[in-house]
Design a protein that fits this description.
alpha+beta, Thiol Ester Dehydrase, Chain A, 6-stranded antiparallel sheet, 3 helices, homotetramer
């Protein structure tokens, strides 16, 4: 397993690659092996019509954080890809920032599981808006890319 | 229940409102009471690093189609909001277009359920990439907006 | 909300009624508003062929504990009925006793959500074998029965 | 893949082994590769207090049918073990018999997915009471047992 500093660098590298995750503004708040926190900020194109973060955006952030949490708990050269995801929306995500905290419950030879709490924050106050459980399979990192997580 | 023509118009109105759903290019392919088909086209900001549609985008489309399928099966003045969502990713969504077909299994007084098949298509060939089950609660449409679906 | 002592009595009354829950030997370990712990002991008819607790038994216990956790957090005269349930099996339930700890995340006017950790214990050592998230709808308790939970 | 006749014999052998599945009276109605139908009959110890089949019993039957559906679609010597399960309860299971029809959506090298419809029947009339999606991992059958399914 990598050192915490390398873990964070790795998660940031994956999160910053071109594509959906960086396009919606995802940033890494914290990353240690098995525990990852991600955030993104309110933007008109991430909301539903009534001004809350859209369920797809909430789910996408939870999914990315879950993949990073399991991947950082795996041996080097292995990464986790989402197989199934379950999410409960508990309250409208009304705040300025969306934060997902993912924790690996399992990071085994062939599959992994992470639980994720998603909150939205406004003026420092934080409210849980969703909880998710993500099931992932564990595969070899393609030698060419050496990216720890592509889900 | 509205006439099919009104049903489609309603679903298109909701889908076209400013926000996430229209920003990712969601369009209505078909809409009858309880059955809705939505699609969106490949764009760099909707993909993961390896060039497939991102899981969050797939889930967001499935969620929106599910909400529309249940809402169009409800009496006028009621709409469906997602409570929980479960999705299984079966294959990489490699194609040019993502299509979600949602069918209401239940559209009751307080709760609704929809199943959704998501496919990706390339050069006319279609492959199922995900299946989802969405649980929704049924609420009154705010008089001010008269929108059938805000989830 | 009832006093803790009444809460426990209520949960025990429901758990002891004739039917599946009492037939498999479910007992109440602890019950406070929003938090319930249930257990049942190993018996040949509760196992799979390889000697672990069966997934259906694990799920049934999680479901019952979730219903009790949400119901005990509701105002008197209301109870919670399961709408959907999601469970991840993390390890074989090899021990002598199965324990489910449920916590209500939400107990609102129309629906509730509970998370449940299920462990199996052998000789005092405890191992998590499953985690579940249960979505419930909240309904009036039939006047005739005055039972807080029939799910 | 085995011949249909062998498939049915295998599923019946697994279903009839001592343990929970046979104790609740599970019987095989039909079994072809990837498609399995199971049933069990009403009994006081399988019901909730209000006389419907208990959610744990419904889930256990769905789980067993899903495992059989995926296992029968796998090459010989491989079987499927449940990783996660999601179920929606659509209506009380009030009838005399509970029937689960499972269909494998995926039966790959490491993972499988099945969808299951569960109905209850009374006097020939059938009503869907639940739908489930089950995610399974695919493992080698222990040489000693040669059992196609132990989930």
């Amino acid at each position: 397993m990598s050192e915490p500093k390398d873990v964070r660098r790795l998660v940031e590298a994956v999160t910053g690659r071109p594509g959906y995750t960086s396009a919606v503004g995802t940033r890494v708040v914290a990353a240690t092996p098995g525990c990852v926190e991600m955030a993104l900020d309110r933007r008109p194109d991430l909301l539903q019509a009534n001004g809350f973060f859209h369920g797809g955006v909430i789910t996408g952030l939870a999914d990315h954080a879950a993949g990073a949490a399991v991947t950082t708990a795996l041996p080097e050269g292995r990464f986790a890809v989402t197989v199934s995801l379950q999410i409960n929306f508990l309250a409208p995500a009304t705040g300025e920032t969306l934060i997902a905290r993912a924790r690996a419950l399992q990071a085994g030879r062939t599959f992994g599981v992470a639980q994720v709490d998603v909150s939205s924050t406004a003026q420092g106050a934080e409210q849980v808006c969703a909880v998710a459980t993500v099931t992932l399979r564990v595969v070899d990192l393609p030698a060419a890319t050496r990216d720890p997580h592509t889900a």
